[in-house]
Every structure is written in C-alpha cells, then in structure tokens.
Design goal:
homodimer; alpha/beta; five-stranded parallel sheet; 8 helices; 43% helix
C-alpha cells in the first residue's frame, strides 16, 4: 500500500508573505508539488501557460466545473479562477503532497470536497497591518488604489483565520519557512500517512514467530 | 488566555530506545516536563525519590487511585505503578507539555481520562527484532531470562502500535530524536495550541479600524 499525499492549503491576506514562502518551498522537497490554477483571464507578460496558470477559455472553464473537474473555483470580477482536480488526484496517488496558494473561500471548498480527509490547512498572519501595508507598497507592483483595494480585502481574509489547522505569524521569513517545513515534516510522520508501516510490523511479527 | 500544555505519550517495547530518547528531550526545552511515576516497589540503588519515581506505600497508592488522583495505573507482578495527576495538571495549566514514558495500557487509560483532548501519542518501533534483542543484551543490565521475559512482552506492546497518532522507526537515534522534536514543535503551532492568537488578531482588527 503506497502513501496518499496531502493537500496543503496556504492562505493569507495579500502582503503577508505567502507567495514568497510558497516559492521557498518549491526548492525544498521533490515530493511536494504545486497546484497550478486555471483562469479565464488573459496571460500577463512573462506568464507561462501550465506554470503560472492554465489559461483557458470561459467555455472550457465552465465545462470543467460542470464535469466536477475543479476542486474549487470562484469568479473574481469578470474572470474565473479554479484548481483543476486531475493533477492533484494524480500527485497524491503518486504519494506526493500538493501545495495550494488559495484564499479562504477556495480552502472552504476543498475542505468540503471528496478529498477532505487529506487536507491540511495553514494560515499566515502579518505581524501588523502597518507591516502588511509596507510590504504591499515596497513590492512596487501596484498603483496606490490597487493597494488600498488589497488592504480592504485583507480583513475579510484575516477574519477567517480560525478555520485553519495551523496558524503562523510571519514576523521573520526564515523562521516562518522553517515552521512550514516543520509542520509538513511532522504531518508525514503521522501513522495515517505511513501505510508502509503495516509491512514493517508484519516483518517484526514474523521475526518473533521465528524465535518461538 | 494562556496556553494549556500537551500530554505527550511515548510508548515502545523495551529496547527500542524510548528511554534514551526521552533523556535527550530532557535537555531540549524548558517548557517540556516529565511525568514521574509513583510506585510501591522499593527504590533500587541510586534511585532518587521524586526524580526516578515517587516511592509510596501500597496504602497511599490505593488511596490516591480511589481519590481519582492517578491518570493511569497498573499492577505489575506484586507492585503498583501509576502517573499522579496533580503535577501533570499543574504543568499543563502553566503552559508546559508533559512527557509520559508509559506502555500501551497506560496510554489507553490517559486517552480515556478527563485530559484526553490534550493527548498526543507517539509509538517507537525497532528496526528489527534482532536489533531489539541486541540492544537489550548490550545494555548488560539483565540476566538472560529477564531479557527473554522482556522479548516475550515486546510483541504484546508492538501489537498496539496502531492506536498511536505518530509512529517512528528508531533506526538511527539522532534522526529519531530530530523527528520527535519536529512532531512536538509542529503540534505547538496548531491554532488550538496558540490561544494568544486571538489577541494578535484583535490587535490587527483595531489597526484596520484606525485606517477607516
């Protein structure tokens, strides 16, 4: 019996460091894969299909949702975003864990999906709102009104912190990265995550039998 | 609201390395305490009351059991052994975790006690029975017939491995020690183990309020 992987959900308000942390985990462990979202919005410059997103038509997206092919999905303004189920299913059946960089609504949908037994959820809080704002500004990516829009959405996201298994305050990136690795490593040591143990115990039992 | 500590149960057959590992954890973290068992057997040379065991009379032991003052207890041949509840209760209310070095029957009793919500259980398996035997012999403590007695009890203990939250195969002491620390560190990052987070989120909320 081989191990079935975990669905590891990482949520946080924008600016709390989630994407940086997810990026650091990419190079950590080959048995950790990343869920690539599908979207109907057009690619931005430099975005690669299948890497940053799967870029699909609205028709194809709707069809996938209707066929039960999306683990979670949402409409944000005029665009759809979702997590395709098939790559996740393949990865966990191969014994790999899958990391999701999604918001609380997506997390909720995955926790109510057919894969709910394998879900592990982690919420990342900022040390302060001043710091959250500072990080959004220092990225230099967004216009002031976009930053204010993100700030307004932040409280909505933070207010769902208490639906998560683990909560980290990202005061220091290195420490939070280490904590994420600790959580994932520990979860892999759960009995339920080590189906091969049955074989080990059978081996011990037969060794006992030979001693009698 | 301050944190309530965990009851961390460590079980294994004798010779799997449990006591060595527990000893290494002693010097690791000041917020990890050790449950000292009470026993009616007389102290052996070098054993210190309150450190290795609490040495008590059979009458005092029975009285404590009747008063609900033992988290778990058992009779082994003509002696009683048990885990006094009061020091554990005090430690976890101080926010300290408490480590128990007990067998599966004691573990079962603690899992059915009033403190069951705070229990975390870890089972340590030997890499092989040959190795288990080798470790018992190499200790040089016990006569061959005592070792054979321990070996017979080993399978009984191992056969309860599947009632534990986490299971480790102690192939390499350093690795198993690191895994134990990983498990304890991760469990402390659970939302339910960080009641102070409520204050942090309230602080964030009031910061948002000031921005409006």
């Amino acid at each position: 019996m081989s191990r079935r992987g975990l669905l590891i959900i990482l949520s946080s308000p924008s600016g709390a460091g989630k994407s940086t942390l997810a990026g650091r985990l990419r190079t950590w462990d080959t048995s950790l894969r990343f869920s690539v979202s599908a979207t109907t919005r057009p690619p931005r410059e430099g975005e690669v299909d299948g890497q940053h997103y799967y870029f699909v038509s609205e028709e194809a997206f709707r069809e996938k949702v209707n066929d039960g092919g999306m683990l979670e999905h949402a409409r944000v303004f005029e665009n759809y975003y979702g997590s395709p189920k098939a790559p996740v299913q393949n990865a966990i059946e191969d014994g790999c864990d899958v990391l999701f960089d999604i918001d609380w609504q997506g997390a909720q949908q995955i926790k109510n999906s057919s894969l709910q037994d394998s879900v592990l959820s982690i919420f990342i809080l900022p040390p302060s709102i001043t710091e959250l704002h500072r990080r959004l500004v220092s990225r230099g990516q967004d216009a002031p009104e976009v930053i204010e829009g993100r700030m307004r959405k932040s409280w909505d996201e933070i207010s769902h912190w208490d639906g998560y298994d683990y909560v980290l305050i990202n005061d220091d990136l290195d420490q939070t990265e280490a904590q994420l690795k600790t959580i994932i490593s520990a979860e892999r040591l759960r009995r339920s995550q080590q189906p091969d143990l049955v074989n080990h115990v059978r081996k011990l039992q037969s060794e006992f039998g030979e001693r009698e």
